[in-house]
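To whoever is covering the structure queue this week,

Two jobs came back overnight. Logging them here so there's a record in the thread.

Job A:
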Amino acid sequence: MARSTGSANPSMLRIFIHRVLKALLWFAAGSALLVLIFRWVPPPGTALMVERKIDSWVNGQPIDLQRSWRPWNEISNNLKVAVIAGEDQKFAEHWGFDFNAIRAAFVHNEKGGTVRGASTLSQQVSKNLFLWSGRSWLRKGLEAWFTGLIELLWTKERILEVYLNSAEWDEGVFGAQAAAEHHFGVNAKDLSPQQASQLAAVLPNPRNWSASRPTPYVAGRAAWIRQQMRQLGGDNYLTTLNTSRSDKPWAE
């Protein structure tokens, strides 16, 4: 009887490990397929939008989610460059992670005070599109996984296109088109450099800052972003996105 019990435990452990590995394999294959599909198909929504809707039900405060997908050519170049200037100036160079920024943020946060983030646009896309809010190690691990898939399977243009159609620019206002209409009454393709810089300026805190009614701090940040846009080369900077993936022909 003792031998029977002893032999059962290793067998159950093997079965458990086998099932876990099988589940991980299915997750890896399924998530890769989903990311690949979104390389061409516009995502119908984002995990952040679902989270906002659930929060509204829990709090009993109805929310009208606004979002209207716009392809790359129907979004102002001003907004594309402004978002890169304000959020991720090494976007064309890195592979999803800016390790220098991560180290700087770690050192800053160790000193206490305000918490500084170091998420690239690619990381923000993976988080907003697929994951929940929070700072757990599990979520961070999944964010790294999806960021790697996005960088591997999408072009830089596609990453920025999805970002601009997924970012939140006010309570329930998602994407460049909804933001342009909500804040300035124009289409996303018609945003001026100043309007684009003000939209980019509120991205760190879009539910508390307003692009159309900027505080002195937001106005100053928008002016800094316009300066960075000029230093990056304006529209010309976007041509570097086309060459950043030249060593990966399957992503084109």
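Job B:
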Amino acid sequence: MAASRTDRIAGVRTYTRWSLVLVALTALLAPAVDLSQRGLPWAVVVPALAALLFVCAEATRLLLVGTDGMEPRAWAPPRTIAAAVLAIVLFAAIGCTSEQLQPSWALPFAVLVTGVSLGAERRTRWLLLAGATVVTGVVGALAALAGWTTEAPLALIAASMFVVAFVGGLTVTQVWIWDVTLQVDNARRVEAEVAVLRERLRFAADLHDVQGHQLQTIALKAELARRLVGSDDDGARRHAAEVQQLALEALAETRAIAHGYREVRLEKELSNAVAILRAAGVEASIEGEPAPVPAELEPLFGSLVREGTTNLLRHSHAERCQIAIVREAGELVVRMDDDGVAAALGTAGRAGRGAGLDGLRERFAAAGGRLD
């Protein structure tokens, strides 16, 4: 699907570029055909064709640069201004000196200004097109007052102004559609990158929860086993066996996270928390039942209980802890209360503001809740 979308985007880009080339080619050929039918001397025809080629080449360059995106950019003022002056001179000296209506000579000027407008800001873009239309009308009016146009001067002026406004507006709209296509494609790409980033953050949060919780428990059990060696060898062996079992469970849960199959049940997390806290000498109890918690929120609240238990063991001297599941003012609340204080004001105190709580706050906020 991604390859197909890329092909479609490339197709739209190719279509847009060739359409703009066709517009520039029309702006070259239409006046050139009229010039060939006038019977003017070669001393006039050759310089006029050279000027026409220069104007249309500059217009083509500006139009094709516009397909990179309608963003403000530098547009080589000296060369572009020279091309604009030549376009107006050609319109006045040739297009307005005929007994027949020849608005085709307004095309090079229209296409050139359109190319310039693609590299301008939005308001400036439309002001440029409006200004070009007015300039075309003024030049045609001056030619009529000077007697250069001997037939239907008002029709020539109106038709020339219409050519500038119509060609400019239509071309800008076409490039704008391409620019919107680019923005939509970029938005899709960014959305895909954000989705990957969110999944990485979710994985990192789950991995932190599992590893931090299990490793803290393993450290506690290992410490108990070390203290019992020599005085209660059976107890030490029992705790050592529990350390091995916890390590295997941590390994299995880590593998499950990596495969996206892990499902945290709040009831299991509550029982694990009570067992671990009691093993550490903390009087732990549970108030309420996990039944009111929606199934889709159980992993989130389970992570809360796990993180709270880990922080209690690492950063406080608590002797009592109560985990409550209640409804307050229409809100579902899972609260952990303990009578401990910070273990120290140094490293341990700062560790309490680590990635675990920040990650939980972000996850609760994403689910429409909050963490205090």
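Note for Job B: Strands lie at 283-287, 320-328, 331-338.

Please reply-all if you pick these up so we don't duplicate work.
Q.
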